[in-house]
Specification:
This protein is of the alpha+beta class. It folds into four domains: 4-99, NAD(P)-binding Rossmann-like Domain (Rossmann fold, 3-Layer(aba) Sandwich), CATH 3.40.50; 127-195, 2-Layer Sandwich (Dna Ligase, domain 1); 197-320, D-amino Acid Aminotransferase, Chain A, domain 1; 324-414, Aldehyde oxidase/xanthine dehydrogenase, a/b hammerhead (Aldehyde Oxidoreductase, domain 3), CATH 3.90.1170. The chain is built from 13 helices and 19 strands. The protein has helices at residues 15-25, 41-46, 58-65, 85-94, 102-109, 111-120, 134-144, 167-178, 238-254, 288-296, 300-308, 342-346, 384-396, and strands at residues 4-8, 29-34, 49-52, 74-78, 128-131, 148-152, 162-164, 191-195, 201-207, 210-219, 227-232, 261-268, 274-280, 322-329, 334-340, 351-356, 363-364, 373-381, 399-403. The strands form four sheets. Strands 13-12-9-10-11-14-18-16 form an eight-stranded antiparallel sheet, sandwiched between helices. Strands 3-2-1-4 form a four-stranded parallel sheet, with helices on both faces. Strands 5-8-6-7 form a four-stranded antiparallel sheet, sandwiched between helices. Helix 3 (58-65) crosses helix 4 (85-94).
């Protein structure tokens, strides 16, 4: 019988589907363990085996696995969803399979605990404070100095992250974070108040403790932090790239990670200091792994899946070039009926991929987070400026048709 690669929950689009593809590439049988496998359209489309389980605990996942062919047929356990990486790690540990430290993953996902660990290790961070009420957050903002960023202590994808210039804005941001504004955000009882970093933003993409490269991140308009594009590798001098890479490695080690994928976001302060915005114990989202693959030939998803299955392979970068991603972002609410211009965008010289990430026919409700992204264009070229121009030219040809109407819940999920 074919060994299983167990995926604990998933993303509805993108990397979850690719994890299963890479498992099959390795000769493994991908099996999704989920509370509701029907939430993931690719499961039916690709014929992915699945089991229903309470994925909120390792015990629930293990109970479901015991209904299968036996634990000895499982080659690896992992997850493409940040919310379930720690659970997957606990299951893998119980089965004696490769895994990151579950406690380290859980601590990393608590942004306050992460900040404390990074600061204790001497890793550059913005000024910060945790707050359990709006009044506490306002007091923290006064100590740190305006403007400040208010963010949920446990979240992802820029959900409920706000730039605040006044106490009233801080109060509103805290209320928004605590009000469960998005199904993708777990219930919150703590926010983080941080110094606003005004400089350029980057991310380092890691496999284990090895930096594959550095990405330049493009952000949408304030007071939100929606990522609207990425350039890989970041057009930086070698010394600056090295500085960012070293800071990312220091951060990962300070958090006792260093296994599997990691996505470390960094930004410069107004004083020119490099600070870690946050460490994510997973591969980057936003199609960054595809950009890395176009630029270097390294398939980061393949390496994460192979390592989880106990078959790690060395990274072998190919001839270097540049890749850029640009996103079509929802500007108003309604129902998405079509994304026009895909074929035209695909014909732009340098464009290598165009994709629609939001289900056509589903209601659109802009939330000022990653869930507002409807489609993307990826372009590649020997020169970073040419790749960026091609991606922007392709994006300019895309148009979202959104019919007016009262929105329900958007179709995307964590």
């Amino acid at each position: 019988m074919t060994e299983w690669l167990v995926l604990v929950e998933s993303n509805t689009t993108g990397s979850g589907r690719l994890f299963c593809f890479q498992a099959r590439r390795l000769g493994l049988r991908p099996v999704l363990i989920a509370r509701d496998p029907a939430r993931y359209p690719y499961v039916a489309a690709d014929g992915i085996d699945h089991l229903v389980a309470d994925t909120g605990s390792a015990a629930g996942v293990l109970a479901a696995l015991d209904t299968g062919p036996g634990r000895n047929m499982i080659a690896g356990v992992t997850s493409s969803s940040e919310y379930f990486i720690a659970t997957a790690a606990e299951v893998a540990r119980e089965l004696g399979l490769p895994h990151p430290p579950p406690d380290a993953v859980r601590a990393c996902r608590d942004k306050h605990a992460q900040r404390l660990a990074l600061s204790a290790a001497g890793v550059g961070c913005p000024a910060f404070a945790a707050a359990g009420t709006a009044d506490e957050a306002i007091a923290a903002a006064a100590r740190i100095g305006y403007p400040v960023v208010v963010k949920p202590a446990s979240g992802t994808g820029s959900i409920a992250v706000r730039l605040c210039q006044t106490p009233d804005q801080v109060r509103a941001a805290v209320g928004h974070a605590f009000a469960a504004p998005d199904p993708a955000l777990p219930p919150q009882d703590t926010v983080l108040v941080e110094e606003f970093l005004t400089g350029a933003e980057y991310s380092a993409e890691l496999i284990d403790d090895q930096v594959v490269g550095v990405t330049r991140k493009l952000l949408g308009p304030e007071p939100y932090f929606v990522e609207i594009g990425h350039d890989f590798p970041a057009p930086l001098a070698a010394a600056q790239t090295k500085l960012i890479a070293e800071a990312a490695i220091d951060a990962v080690r300070a958090l006792r990670l260093g296994y599997g994928g990691a996505h470390v976001e960094l930004r410069y302060s107004r004083f020119g200091e490099l600070c870690v915005v946050e460490v994510n114990p997973r591969l980057a989202g936003g199609m960054i792994p595809r950009a890395v693959q176009e630029a270097t030939g390294i398939d980061m998803i393949f390496h994460v899946v192979a390592a989880a299955a106990g078959r790690p392979e060395p990274l072998r970068p190919g001839p270097g070039r540049a890749a850029s991603i640009r996103f079509l972002v929802a500007a108003r609410q309604g129902t998405l009926t079509a994304v026009d211009g895909v074929a035209e965008a695909e014909r732009v010289p340098g464009v290598v991929e165009v994709g629609i990430t939001f289900p056509v026919g589903q209601p659109v409700l802009p939330r000022h987070s990653f869930r507002d992204r409807l489609a993307y264009v990826i372009a590649a070229d020997a020169a970073s400026t040419a790749a960026a121009r091609a991606a922007e030219a392709g994006l300019a040809l895309l148009t979202a048709r959104i019919e007016p109407g009262e929105p329900g819940e958007p179709g995307d999920r964590p």
